Every structure is written in structure tokens, then in C-alpha cells.
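Justification of resources, computational component.

The compute hours requested in this renewal are based largely on the per-chain cost of generating structure records like the one below. Each record pairs the submitted sequence with a full C-alpha cell output. That output is archived, and it is also reused by downstream analysis tasks.
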Amino acid sequence: MNAEIVWPESMTSVKGGVQPRGPAVNQMYGRLKLFSGNANLSLAEAIARYLGTGLSPAHVASFADGEISVHIEESVRGCDCYVIQPTCRPVNEHLVELLLMLDALRRASAGRITAVIPYFGYARADRKTAPRMPISSKLMANLITTAGANRVITMDLHAAQIQGFFDIPVDHLFAAPVLLEYVRRKRLAAPVIVSPDVGGVERARAFAKRPSADLAILDKRRPRPNEASVYHLIGDVKSRVAVLLDDMVDTGGTLMKVATKLRECGAVKVYAACVHGVLSGSASDLVKESDLEELILTDSIPVTRLEGGKIKVLSIAPLMGEAISRNHQGKSISALFV
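The structure output for this chain reads:
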């Protein structure tokens, strides 16, 4: 899968190609070193190319019984280390890989360890929705901190308050500049940005400000996990192009219902821009059969099934790479989203 690189206007690098440079050595934390588990090696390699460096050698494999073996294969003493690992499917395996790599770097006397988690699994369990249930995302935050992370860089958390679950600094990035640049290039006439539920209104409103687009909201209820019912549309999409904005698409069932609802309300075309393409089960087939014109995703999670021509994958490597470079050099990361 080759994700298209879209260069947001806020990026300082030259558009049209990666400019190898190699960030300066941080005087406090030493040389920058990048590591990756097995969750999304292609993204990690793209980030390394953006930074003009390579991935440091690390052996991450499994024993016959399923236990994970990690060995950092070069000295990291006093270095500024970044472990690039989304906790995507298989979630538990990739999570343990991340934890063991953090622990290995901590025990190897790394100067600073940053967990770069493009997709943060268990983020949907951010509160108790019934008695006697865990707050899973809080537990994940505790595990990552205990394993040795001094800082976390992540992207488009399902709930922004998850940042507060960590007792270490969290840089919360947004894929909006990448998605917005692609939507701009399509030159859609008077698009309407649609939030699929009330929880996503803030994200949709911020997105709609850039192209000065109108905003619409769907009233959606979830009677049970991975199942949704769409009731009402707040706003007007009649004879307009609707751009549905969400943080992730999982089974695709909700997305299909929302697209159908928008077409019933008069939208001439429906696009969906979702940061994380979880795409469980037959999600790719549902997208192919849906009323969507196109599903726009990023490569925060590897996307391998692109049949039907309705799925477009954009690379977040330049954005993640720029955030890592700025963090390493002690520069502002929030300036990327002004």
C-alpha cells in the first residue's frame, strides 16, 4: 500500500518531495534515534525518510508460544529515542511490543523515550458506561508510563480527555491539515462538513473554519457496540456536497447508514474523511457498496484492501516527522496547527 503524501500549508518543508536533513542533536537528550515495532513499519520508514535518517536496528519477534521477544541492537545511552508503534490489530500483541520496547530502552539508559502512537487503541473505553466496567484507556496510559515512556505523541484521540489519563506530557496531533489539503485539491463546490454525532462537533467545526464551509450534525444513537441508528439531521445538505468527518471507521456499518441518510436528505455527493481506518470484518466491502463517493483515510493504521476505488489513503509521515523533529529540537508543535 502506497499512501499519497499531502503537504499541508503549515509544513515548513518544501512541497513536492521529502528533503533529507537530519535534525540537530538535542543538547539535553543527545542523538535522535527512531525505532519501530511490527504494527506499521511502512509508516515508520516514511517518517525516517522525512527526517533524513533511518530506523535504528531492533529485533521484535515472537517465540513459538506467542511471547514477544525484543532486543535493541545498538547503544542508546543518553539518546533521544522515539518508538513508532500504533496499537492497531492485533491490538494486544502490538501493545505488548510497544511496552517491551519502552522497557528495553529505559533499562539501556536512553536519555529520553517518546512513545509515538499514531493510533491509540482502547481509546473508546474512556469512561464507565455501566457498573463494574474498566476504564481501559486509563489503564493503557498507566502501562505506557510505567514501561518507561517520558512523553507521548499521538494523533486524533477518540476522546481528547485521554490526554489527562497520562502523568507525562502528551502531544496530541491532528490529521486535519492533511485531510483538508486533499479536500481543497478536489475543489468541491460549497461543501458542508458533517459531524456524525454530537461528540464530533468540535472537530467538525474546526475543520469547517478553514474552507469557510457550513456545518451539519447527525443525531446518532448506539444501542450496542459497533451498531448505530441515525435519527435526525441538524443542518441543510440539500443539493450540496457533504463531507463526513470522523476520527475512525471500524466496521463501516455506521458510515454506510450515515451516507445513506445524507443522500436521502438531498446531498448530491457524500465524501467521508476518517483519520484511522480500522476497517474490521467486511468494512471494505460495505464501503464499496455504500453511497459514499470516496472514503479518505490516513496511514496511521496499515490499509491493504483498496478494491473498488473508493478508498484513498493519505500519508501522515511528514506531519509526524515534523512533530518528532520539533520535539527533538525543543520547538513548538502547536504551531503546525495554527
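Residues 13-20 have pLDDT under 50 and may be disordered. Helices lie at 41-50, 91-107, 136-147, 176-185, 201-209, 253-264, 283-289, 317-329.
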